[in-house]
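Re: duplicated header lines in exported structure tokens

Our pipeline writes sequence and tokens for each protein into one text file. With two proteins the header for the second block appears twice in some exports. Here is an export where it did not happen, for reference. First protein block:
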Amino acid sequence: MLYGRSGLSETSRSVFGSTGWLFADLMLAIAMAFLVANTVGVHTPHRPVTKKLVCSQPALDRFHPVKVPLVINPTGLTSRSRTADASVRQQVERVHGLKKRRAGFVIIYTGNAETSSYALVVDGFVKKVLMTLPNQKLGFRSAAYLDEQIIGAEPNSSQLEVYLFEPQQCTTITEPPT
């Protein structure tokens, strides 16, 4: 008597068929037990969020110079008179648009009623006074200077054109943990 194509009886086939599913279920249970045993109790540390402060390079405001008219004592400046120096210093410190800003470029115009070389000498002394101003209030030390003359003007008149750096823009960048 033939018992189907495989040659096994109905009872034999159901026993071996159940055994196969039982073996597959057992393998699945062992795999799950292995995964649980390796992950339970393991704490993966969280890396802290990284914050960076990124600041742009300040740009020179070329279109809005601060103009500072000065009344100077050219003889006092060239003879290093403290009163003449203090007068220039006070006139510059009173200009509101310069406070806590950094100068990038300064043009010094001085009257030229006498010889041109004298006006340039006076410009040099005005520059020395500007460079002695404290950095916390006004930043003139690292500025570039250009000496110019106002032809036909009185030697006691001077004007500054101060090109300032724009305030530095800083941004905090938050980098997610990896």
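Second protein block, exported in the same file:
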Amino acid sequence: MTWLIIILLIVIIYAFFFLAQFYNIILNRAPFITTDREIIKKIISELFVPEQATVYELGCGQAMFLRLLEKKFTKINLIGVENLFLVYLFDKIKFNILGSKIEILHKNIFDINLKDADFLYCYLSDEIMDKMVEKFKRECKVGTKVISCVFTLRNFTPYKVITVNNDKIYFYEI
């Protein structure tokens, strides 16, 4: 009987997750898609992040970028922004258990101010990246680096483009 309850709870959680995915896709929001670990490792190998820098992962999902970055750069501020409540909750619990210093915010990426960001990592969608252009111009300080997996930042020229596993990664500076 206990196993049946556990299985039922898991099914309910997955159903809520997939409904949230469907809802995000219908509203032209980025769905929950994780970046391949090898891609993130390659991105991080291309970065120099100074001490005390503030790094955001927008639409962080499992916050893989921040988790791997935390291992390499121990004295930086790491902030993940996730709008899906269940994903946020799992991250919050996981990082508390692991003793991680990653801060997870349950917010829409358009509702946070990026004025203190030194680096931004995004794996969003073309539509969302188009909307982010004005936000970046308005809120980010000069010199903020934006790393975008797959999707370009309209009206910005990347200072570097790398290809990993057939995916292009774009590096921009505001």
